What does this fold into?
Amino acid sequence: MPELPEVEVVRRGLQDHVVGRTIERAEFYSARVARRHHPGAHHHAEQLADNRVAEARRRGKYLWMVLQTPDGFHQGLITHLGMSGQLLVEAVDAPDEKHLHARFTFDDDGPELRFVDQRTFGGMALSDLDEAGVPEAIEHIAPDPLEAAFDQKAVVAAMKKRHSAVKRALLDQDLVSGIGNIYADEALWRACVHGERLCSALSKPVLGSILDHAREVMLEALGQGGTSFDALYVNVNGASGYFDRSLNAYGQEGRPCRRCGTPIRRESFMNRSSYSCPRCQPRPRVARLATR
DNA sequence: CTTTTCTCCTGTATGC
DNA sequence: TGCATACAGGAGAAAA
It folds into this structure.
């Protein structure tokens, strides 16, 4: 379940193994992987040959390679890993994966780049870049808490105006990007706030502290995700070690809260699971009522 | 306009 | 053993 730290691990893998190389050929094996690229997968593949990978960048859970065409134009090749997407750097003679959707070979005859995705929630698309070098296709995605463009004061103000659950806001990539179900639960646990409390009912300092905790927990995860990185495997499972050792809430149902010992509970929220401490993170006292 | 729900997908785990 | 069902969940479209 790649969220910001896992995607950043992948970006660093691309930085180390792909940036600076020139694509020789791109092949797409399913239209679905390029479904966000409206001209289609065939066009997609055609546009990629002879492009030099100039940079590997990330915003939230989106990753993109800045490609330079032979004419010197720049464009973005966006990748979103979805639930189960992986970018793998592998020897050209390595056997194909069962869910291989795209392959990129390079003119140096070195290892190739593959996009493998079991559940096909992920995808790739080409997009023009804006003045800031961000693909136009993802301009709606808000800056993430780790980038310089992140304006926490503005995000807190926007949250304060929302009449929806605070966890829903944390997961809204148009408000703040990079946070998924795991790190939302972890940030809320650290801040001692139940995810179903309304944004508008929380103080700005509390909203700010939730964002601070989100940033901190993702930075910690990133520190650990880097350690399990394998040179030939641009891993989306950077959090695997992190899962076992450091998660305080997510997936911990029934285990004692590390602050107070109360068993962690699991609740259904937005058709997903939310984990929290019943004592440290009491549910909002008044049931949320639809105002209209 | 804002907010919520639905849908896409398949491997793994669980229940009868 | 086999079959059915639940679950994992990001993001965008559709609905309310």
